[in-house]
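Known limitations

Structure tokens in this collection are predictions and should be treated as such. Users comparing against experimental data should check residue numbering before alignment. To illustrate the layout, the record for DNA repair protein RecN is reproduced below. The input appears on top and the generated tokens appear beneath it.
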Amino acid sequence: MLQQLKINNYALIDNLEISFGAGLNILTGETGAGKSIILGALSLILGQRAESRYFFNQQKKCIIEGTFQIGEFHIKTFFEDNDLDYAPETVLRREISADGKSRAFVNDTPVNLTILKQLGEKLIDIHSQHATLEINDPAFQLLVIDSVAKHPDLLNQYHVTYRGYKSVTVKLKQLLDESERAKAELDYHQFQFDELEKASLSPDEQEKLEQELFALNNAGDIKRNLSGAHYLMDEGETPALLQLREASHQLTTLEKFDPLIAEINQRLKSSIIELKDIASEIETIEQRTFINEERALELNARLTLIYNLQKKHRVSTNAELLQIQQDLSNKIQQVLFGDEEIEALQQQIALKKDLLQSLASGLSANRTVAIPLIEKQVQESLSEMGMGNATLKIENAVSATQAFDQNGIDHIRFLFSANKGYALSEMSKVASGGELSRLMLSIKSLIASNTALPTIIFDEIDTGVSGEVANKVGQVMERLSQNLQVITITHLPQIASKGPNHYFIYKDDTAATTYTRIKPLTNKERVVEIAKMLSGDNPGDSALQNARELLKG
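Generated tokens:
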């Protein structure tokens, strides 16, 4: 329920704070005092778009904050799905700056207006005399029937199964489409695959072949330079190794004079050994280096094949060609074995269809039982509110076998006649605003007695009724408030006398600027306020007494 509402800098409100109670909350006040302004501010935290021209002070931002008790509404999954912190006492806040920029928060977590609106719809239902679209909505009409049918577990099982069924049918369509395309392209894919498979590619082959070909193409230069290096090191008239050996011999004769000379000579001898090994390896490489034109031709042919394949498939490496080969293999396998997966999915769909038909039949049976109960209870409630000749008829067009949708096989339509002798028709065509309001009140009362509803706000839906009928409307609201929080804005004393919580909205002209204020009324103040609603600003004793009797009743 809406526990508290804070409004700062909106229209005629500079700073206002309201704490609402459980059950029935009455809001009264003169026309223009600001009742609609309060609803307008409340709508901002329910996701409605804001206009800065409604700000009280154009230099300050507008802040609206609502505190809700939500523990009984079972909407924790909504918070989890939208990555919000859940708390049984949840705060919705909206901040709008003077330049029109808006920020919204749920428990201090920033959210966009879509999420705020979705959450707001789960917490508050605002109904005015002219807000009759919902009652003509087939989804709402079905909700009414399901709430009376009392089959939430069966309905949830159906919805889960239906979502699974739709998911599998989408997957089947994708497979069928892919299978058709694959079959049409099978020969082309097979040719490409065979060409790649015949090439017997390996991931690192190209680099090795290019390196080997480079060496073969430069074999003459390589052999000549290796031979020259070996000649300088170990051949010729004065090879480097011979000179180094002679240098070591000269140092050997001096070792006895200085230990450092002996150490240097040892290092030189080690270098001679290493250089001798290097010369030997150079000679080995030189001897095995030779010009092989046949091998060069073979390498050129292999690389030409690789380059052509890469160009054809618009890639630059063998690894990419191998991935294409694997993809082609998968497409071919899909054609060869895809029918098995399609058959498996078709069998799965057939099983889900049978289950859905069974669940839908169960839902339909429960709805069929609920429909006359709804018609009877709504008729009784309307009669109580002065519409004894009104008739609500609920038609259910049951679909043929396995022709189900997301709600089952039932297609509901509410038909209504407000007066005797008039044909039943869609409600928007035959009912006035006041009649639709009483019809909606009857239906909401019925739903609330069977399931948890959010806070409901009635904005002067009692227009067009008076006297005993108004008293009956108030009694229906009182019964409704036993199951949920009801906030109603009214000009009728018969309704204002109902419920334990009465708030008076008024304009404060004591300062230089007019402000909208609100205050909870004591029992004594309620008597005076209701007496004024009965007879004017200066109620007499009879009006006061009448007000006391209304409050007692």
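For this record: The chain has two domains: 1-129+453-521, 151-363. The mean pLDDT is 87. Please report discrepancies through the issue tracker.
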